[in-house]
Amino acid sequence: MNHSTLEAEVKEQTAHSIPVTVAYGDGIGPEIMKAVLLILEKAGAAITPEVIEIGEKVYLSGNTAGIDKSAWESLRKTKVFLKAPITTPQGGGYKSLNVTTRKTLGLFANVRPCVAYAPFVTTNYPETDMVIIRENEEDLYAGIEHRQTQDVVQCLKLITRSGCEKVIRYAFEYASTRGRKKVTCLSKDNIMKLTDGLFHKVFDEVSQEYPELETEHLIIDIGAARLATRPEMFDVVVTSNLYGDIVSDIAAEVTGSVGMAGSANIGMDFAMFEAIHGSAPDIAGQDIANPSGLLMGAVKMLIHIGQAAIAENIHNAWLKTLEDGIHTADVYNEDISKEKVGTQAFAEAVISRLGQKPNTIKPVTYNKELKRIQVHLNTPVEAKKELLGVDIFLDWNKGTAEQLGKELSQSKTTNLQLQMMTNRGVKVYPDGLEETYCTDHWRCRFIHEAKTPVTYKEVIELLNTVTEAGFEVIKTENLYSFDGKIGFSLGQGQ
Ligand code: NAD
């Protein structure tokens, strides 16, 4: 784009200032936010920041959510959030505000581009150019945890078909509209056949609608290993929440520093933009943090609010700064860098290069016609759901699996008899091995041998019988079939 076209586009895109909610965050947050807002201002971004207080100060004032009502009001009004990292105080019942915000605002897709800038930023993998799209609302991050016995604590992994479909459709739409060639799905469905199995299944279904894109599925362990050692084989990666959290940090480090990558958290109505890293308390207040991750988040925000020309200008000035060897300490390498600078000096260096483009690194161009990605769900026809039995979880430590199995077999109803018991998922009754270590947490499956449907009343009757026999029930899980297909896993060894 020549200079006068750029000026005309900037003028058109900044005719109206857009209100944006801004949080300065904790640790290095205030320093990097200050640097980023200065760059945005000097580049002519038409935004009106509404500053809210969230994070450590709010937590420590006694608010365990880390955010108050007025902050939510600003977010509901602006629908756009530029957020510096925050510190979650350890222990003490504080919930992660990042997770709360993502879930409360329905930010289902976390988009994290990870690009190598070789030879200007040290990396062993100069060809790396991938986008990790992480499911952002569910999985183990539902944070539903319970202590159930003296020995056992549990965390529920919740995966929904609609959650999988939203993020997977987003990933395919992203790949297809942004000139990407391949989408890789990472899951652990060889072990978690229902939860990760659903993610993989929905990936296979949605992929049918994008025949022009290459697709692959990798088990997360080998996927993460290849991402760390052969990152150039990836293009767009879509995965569930926990795996995505881990592999995006790996990918960012592979490109040079966790301080380089920004992210967009996208929902149907709201969007939040941030760096992928945390509040880095170890370097806070020293003016040495790299503001690039938050800057790249802010660039995505400008595209989101229709200021693509300014986003492009900032992005190219930033690339030129890296190319000129002006580096913060985390990416500084005395063999290739020219000058080691602090956070604010780095921002000044970017500002002084506004209007310039990199010479060796390919400049970016943002198409201002590119539409925001909209995701529509294909709701499947409702399946016929039938109750087949119940898993009763007991807290019991009075003997062996064989003894428990024999005692518990006495409890039954017309249609529900003890079929098997597992301990930490492995079958221990009937026909368990003496060698298997058993803790005080037993999953006892009651089901009709012929798998005929039962009523919930009968489950209650069974629970009364089990309780009257002196057993402590910790929890129950109903066993359902959907259109005749069982909706529960077998015991290991069953
Ligand atoms: P971290 O990402 O803050 O830091 C990890 C390492 O990377 C540290 O050595 C740090 O100095 C370095 N680093 C991070 N960002 C950098 C930057 N911009 N420039 C230079 N070096 C940088 O991870 P952590 O130490 O595990 O977490 C610290 C706190 O941040 C915790 O309270 C955690 O809960 C929180 N956190 C917040 C977010 C968020 O707000 N989105 C994300 C992750 C962690």
Walk me through the structure.
- With 494 residues, the chain is of the alpha/beta class.
- The protein folds into 2 domains: 3-352, Isopropylmalate Dehydrogenase, CATH 3.40.718.10; 385-486, 2-Layer Sandwich (Alpha-Beta Plaits), CATH 3.30.70.1570.
- 33% of the residues lie in helices and 22% in strands.
- The strands form 4 sheets. It has a 10-stranded mixed sheet, sandwiched between helices.
- α7 (195-207) links the parallel β8 (182-187) and β9.
- The model has no long low-confidence stretch (mean pLDDT 93).
- Nicotinamide-adenine-dinucleotide binds next to loops.
Task: Tell me which ligands are bound.
Answer: nicotinamide-adenine-dinucleotide
Approximate strand percentage: 15-25%
Q: Using DSSP, what is the number of strands? A: 20
Q: Give the radius of gyration.
A: 26 Å
| CATH architecture group name of the largest domain | 3-Layer(aba) Sandwich
Euclidean distance between termini CA atoms: 65 Å
Q: Spans with pLDDT under 50 lasting ≥5 residues?
A: none
Output the strand order for the largest sheet.
2-1-3-12-11-4-5-10-8-9
CATH topology of the largest domain: Isopropylmalate Dehydrogenase
Q: Helical stretch count?
A: 14
- The rough form would be described as elongated
The number of domains: 2
Q: What can be said about the biggest beta sheet?
A: 10 strands, mixed
Question: According to CATH, what is the class of the largest domain?
Answer: Alpha Beta
Overall pLDDT: 93
Oligomeric status: single chain
CATH level-4 homologous superfamily of the largest domain: Isopropylmalate Dehydrogenase
Helix content: 25-40%
Structural class given helices, strands, pairing? alpha/beta
